[in-house]
């Protein structure tokens, strides 16, 4: 009986040690992830306070995030348009759920070592609390920031009323888990056929007062308008390129006072355009000239991670 008791005690002690080791391993992994995320947040903040404008292209999946990181960019954004197109659906308010957008964003975060800011659309709901919940979940996904727009998704009333729009940004700011997560507040007038610069500037100023870290008015028509927006606020300004064939450059935008330059869905549309042209050549001509423009399999593979085969 003594041997049985001793064996039982040994097994109990061994199980206890194994549980402690697993707990310590989980704790170490959690600490490591927290340290990595803190480093990304610090890098993201630093970029917004460095001299000149920086580029923040929009990836739409883990693979494009890997490629953009390999090309030397310092930060990434996500794109709801790129994600929607990859799923075969139109980019419109309500076409993507919060979980779909954040699952996609999480895959991009996990694919790179770069800080990532997410396109959080209108916060996935009209109420300020919807924006707050979206920010809380975005931070848990490892994101360093997110952009919330003042577009309603209602074609008859496309922009939220001024006070309500500001309340939504204020709630998003209050939901931040710490000072590192950067809230970008978007005023959507110009892309909804409301080219009212005065109202746009009033909104951006109110968003800044509500605590937004970055402001953003997509669709500004020219460099003079961009300059006017930058002069009207004291927080960093984001400008999206690729919405039109603008003639200005990164240097022009930087000189105008822009701090951050994103690409929206334009890189995704460029990739789709090349695929369509290749498929049209294949269908209409029966030729394969597109393959000469494609990067090699080795070049593509070199951008990606080596992963073991997943279990069946």
What does this entry look like structurally?
With 312 residues, the chain is α/β, with parallel strands linked by helices. The protein contains twelve helices and nine strands. It has helices at residues 2-48, 62-70, 80-86, 98-111, 128-140, 162-174, 197-209, 223-232, 250-256, 266-285, 290-293, 297-302; strands at 54-56, 58-59, 76-78, 116-119, 145-149, 182-186, 214-216, 237-240, 260-262. The longest helix is centred in the N-terminal third of the chain and has 47 residues, at 2-48. It is globular, with a radius of gyration of 23 Å. The model has no long low-confidence stretch (mean pLDDT 91).
Write the layout of secondary structure elements.
Blueprint (H helix, E strand, L loop, with lengths): L1 H47 L5 E3 L1 E2 L2 H9 L5 E3 L1 H7 L11 H14 L4 E4 L8 H13 L4 E5 L12 H13 L7 E5 L10 H13 L4 E3 L6 H10 L4 E4 L9 H7 L3 E3 L3 H20 L4 H4 L3 H6 L10
Parallel strand pairs: 1-9, 2-3, 3-4, 4-5, 5-6, 6-7, 7-8, 8-9
Helix pairs in contact: 2-4, 5-6
How many beta-strand segments? Answer: 9
Globally, the shape reads globular
Secondary structural class: alpha/beta
Distance between the amino and carboxyl termini = 45 Å
Question: In angstroms, what is the radius of gyration?
Answer: 23 Å
Please report which band the strand proportion falls in: under 5%, 5-15%, 15-25%, 25-35%, 35-45% or over 45%.
5-15%
| Overall residue-averaged pLDDT value | 91
User: Order of strands in the sheet with the most strands?
Assistant: 1-9-8-7-6-5-4-3-2
Total helical segments: 12
Unreliable parts:
none
Quick one: biggest sheet?
A: 9 strands, parallel
